[in-house]
Write a structure and sequence with these properties.
196 residues, six-stranded antiparallel β-sheet, globular, 6 helices
């Protein structure tokens, strides 16, 4: 289940504790390849440098599937799927692996995109860091189903139930500088996320 949730989630939150004991967290794109999670960011990022240098990391992904509305405020909740990963990162410094993971990151967001867009040039390679975190210590937490009201509240004249939430796409909007004749790729006209 951990892998399926990571594959569906669009972003992860990367957290660590700095040398002064202050917690830090950033959202970023990710891609899972086998048993490794890849995240990317700027080489200037304090977070990316700290992780490259060996700081322990906690990475989370959450997908909200529904609002759960109970008769009592205490029992309101959400249906969700979440993952937490703990570990240490290594920098992807080999240019071949870096390029493959740049494609994987693009394909995670829009499958098929990695084959179309150009790879990072040398200057972009020097500015960008990709980190690999093994998925060795991870857990998933999932909540599904209706509200869990107390029996004494079941007769209250308050609507209770689940409001499903879904990721919906709009119509692709071409860049104003897009050359004429370039069609919207099929992976965008038929865009969908994998479902766990």
């Amino acid at each position: 289940m951990v892998r399926a949730i990571l594959d569906e989630a669009l972003i992860v939150h990367v957290a660590w504790v700095d040398d002064d004991g202050a917690p830090r967290q950033i959202p970023t794109l990710h891609a899972r390849v086998g048993d490794t999670l890849y995240v990317h960011g700027s080489r200037a990022s304090q977070t990316m440098r700290a992780l490259r240098d060996g700081a322990e990391v906690c990475i989370t992904a959450t997908i909200v599937d529904a609002l759960v509305l109970a008769r009592s405020l205490f029992h309101h909740s959400m249906n969700y799927r979440s993952v937490v990963i703990y570990g240490r990162a290594r920098e992807v410094s080999d240019r071949g692996e870096f390029d493959a993971m740049a494609r994987a990151l693009a394909d995670h967001v829009a499958p098929g995109r990695g084959a179309e867009a150009r790879l990072p040039n040398d200057d972009e390679f020097r500015q960008t860091m990709i980190l690999a975190v093994p998925i060795d210590e991870a857990s998933a937490k999932i909540r599904t189903g209706p509200p869990k009201d107390d029996e004494a509240d079941l007769g209250l004249p308050v609507w209770a139930g689940v409001l499903p939430l879904d990721l919906a796409t709009g119509r692709p909007e071409p860049d104003p500088t897009l050359a004429s004749g370039i069609l919207v790729p099929g992976y965008l006209t038929d865009y969908h996320r994998p479902t766990a």
